[in-house]
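Sorry, any thoughts here?
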Amino acid sequence: MTIEMGLWRADGAGLNRITPSAIGLEAELETYIESDPALLGDLLLVIGRQVPTAFGGFIDLLALDELGSVHVIELKRDKTPRDVTAQALDYGSWVAQLSRSDIQAIYDVYRPGVALEEAFAECFNETLSEEINTAQILTIVAGSVDAATERIVRFLNESFDVPINVVFFRHFVDSGATYLARTWLVEGDGQSQASKSGSSRRTKTREPWNGSDWYVSFGEDSGTRQWEDGKKYGFVSGGGGKWFSQTLKNLQIGARVFVHIPKSGYVGVGTVTGEAKRFDKTMVEVNGTPVPLQELDLKGTYDHGGDGSDDSVEWAVPVEWVHAVPRKQALWKNGMFANQNTAAKLRQQFTIEQVTDAFGIGDL
């Protein structure tokens, strides 16, 4: 059944229907959507326009949603029903093969000099996930389509869960005012549907890990843990529960750690010099002499109470700082990596580059 949109002007007790105008609509829609992709219903970050594919075609618009799914937005223009659906599917199959670095390269061409991570954080107020392009969502934009196109898209979407849909726009002019109306062919949450199908592709789309860089969250607590101690004596720590301390045990001697204070920013980069141990058994070097951490003049107590078991106490890892700054000089930019785990593999090149450049330490 063909979708039809109507617009009426209320004049007192009567209604006057406004006749839609298609003049220049499809020529303008690409620009309209690029300037305000929320026209499609969800908040989107456009990452490319007229993106060349490996087989010679050009995708009208590419965008990311807050889940990191990639939206292929293709205008119908003068394509036939068979062509418009086939082209959208063809583009989707190509996009599905793109790695994170490929996505980054497309965005770099679209907005040179603007980091994708910063743009994503500004758009969604969220950190860009390590895993992007795990799902693709195909949207055909049209003023109208014929019954054959509707039938094909419904069949793919409703019978096979292919995340493809048509969004209709109609252009109305009334007494000098211009209006744009929108509706969808298939109602539903295509974004969630598509994202569910992407879990099997996460390894491919995840930013690669260099094998040495780690993120460490130094959860500062005035009564328990203080960065001033870690900076002065060379260590990172976490504890008060197995969840907080167990990831520290993944840090190997020689690993490079990027230390982040939640709600403040990055404060240090250093090299791990010893294995994770209970805080009361950790030794650090002071003026070349090994000294038990708990015997030093510390600002924090590093005492969580409890039964004193390995799972409940504080654990520490000795670190030789390459560069460390006070908390008030912490570095933070929108889009930088942050994680609830005490230690995690740091894959995000954006964060690595921002911290090493700001701290003047280069890529050691």
